[in-house]
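Re: weekly structure request thread

Next one in the queue (404 aa):
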Amino acid sequence: MSHTPSRQDFDHYMTPNYAPQQVIPVRGEGSRLWDQQGSEYIDFAGGIAVNSLGHCHPVLVNALKEQGEKLWHLSNVFTNEPALKLAKTLTERTFADKVFLCSSGGEANEAALKLARRWAVDHHGEHKDKIISFHQSFHGRTFFTVSVGGQPKYSQGFGPVPGSILHANFNDLESVRELVGDDTCAIMVEPMQGEGGIVPATQEFLQGLRDLCDDHNALLIFDEVQTGVGRSGELYAYKNFGITPDILTSAKSLGGGFPVGAMLTTDAIAKSLAIGTHGSTYGGNALASAVALAAVEFIDTPEVLGGVKKRHDLFREHLETINRKYGVFKEIRGMGLLIGAQMSEAYEGRAKDILPLAIEEGLMALIAGPNVLRMAPSLVIPEADIAEGMARLERAIERLVAAA
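Done, posted below.
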């Protein structure tokens, strides 16, 4: 007998570490989704900044279909053409000379951190092991990355965390100077904190980090898992600042919805990942690489990247119009199509209350902590969908205000 899964099945069969919305989407096209009952939603969430070209974009679907009829997986005992093409394309379009392919942002950051430690040992000795990150940062869910991330709630309750990890204050260069030294092997930073509240770094802060790394023979790691592949209006956000990292991590938008991650670095640093030092079972998978290649080539064009910047302005204008009527936001911030609206004092901690109301109005959105409404839609979301989605958001906020 056939069974149609329900939301109750999640509670029955799945581990309880998530609390998904009650609706179950079953079909998507562009920036719209439909659930089991046929109700339609506009998608401002983008799979948490993953669905860079929306749902079922023909460029990605065609890449998946074509590769799916040729070759799926080999393991890293062999290489494959899509992985080599993707690596070549990423190096040609960035500062990097070498690419490590994996399956997620957490894996990419794990690789970056291990590489930094290994490089430091190779070139300076085992004493040089300190990693500096930032409060409210987020770098993944492996035990290493969650420890480097600056939100203790994600690492508490799992036993002792790895040592030699320090946390400074984001956009506060002096707090970094107090921690950095000749025993520092790397500073890891998001050009814009995502889970920490959609907070862009300042030009002076990132330049200061670059200078400190140069002064102390440390590596600068940019975590661009959330800001990368067009999300900021450039292929990678470091290009907005004109500051080049030593290691860069990428995932989310890289695969447009297909699980894939990458770590990018230079020839000199990559040498420390000698044979056998690191690996990934699915890293460089032919299906994932083919889809990621199609996504990068489609997104890294003046038309798409310019469109991201134009859409950013549209989102901001709509949010400011809503705020003039209801006064629910203290600040609207972000880069490109990663946008955060911080709640005003009267609605402190109420961002999460907007989400179910928005669902009822036919809109999918996100939060970045309890106090920031987050939007990370398709990079090519039609302007008509932006306008309609904002109308639905306004109705949700009107209900929030009326119930206050």
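The chain has a mean pLDDT of 96. The two ends are 47 Å apart (CA to CA).
Next request, please.
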